[in-house]
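hey so u asked for the seq, here:
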Amino acid sequence: MAAESSITVGTSPANLVSNPIQPAWILDGKPMARLELLSSSADGTASTYFWDCTAGRFNWFYGFDETFHILEGEVTLKYPSGRSHRVVAGDTVFFPAGSSAEWTVERYVRKLAFCRTPVPGYLTFARQMVRRLKRAVKGSGKEVGSGLL
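ran it, structure tokens below
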């Protein structure tokens, strides 16, 4: 039951706090952003946020993987290639770590964001090997216990 005690359920209104956009990233207007941390993984590599922002145009640089779902409003994303895409309530977007986009928020946008810091390849490989080893040990234990040997 220990895992159950770490489950969190929330139904209270959002408790958004100021999350200023870096001044050097702002291209036009005075966008005001806020966020609320909803959850964070035990290892600190994943988190979930509510985020909102008022009108303005700004660059955004992603230092981690982010998948977001627009809950309200809309934004025009302009990619480094020059291509633009309008994203509205109900749309989901993924930005990998290292990517960027120019955001144009005409009035207001609110999103639910799932953020994840990528784990280096060698650590992912090591984790996979440990899992395989555990399965192999557990599997051999089952055979011994079941009288198959």
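Residues 143-149 have pLDDT under 50 and may be disordered. Strands lie at 17-18, 26-28, 33-40, 46-61, 65-78, 84-88, 92-95, 100-116.
lmk if thats what u needed
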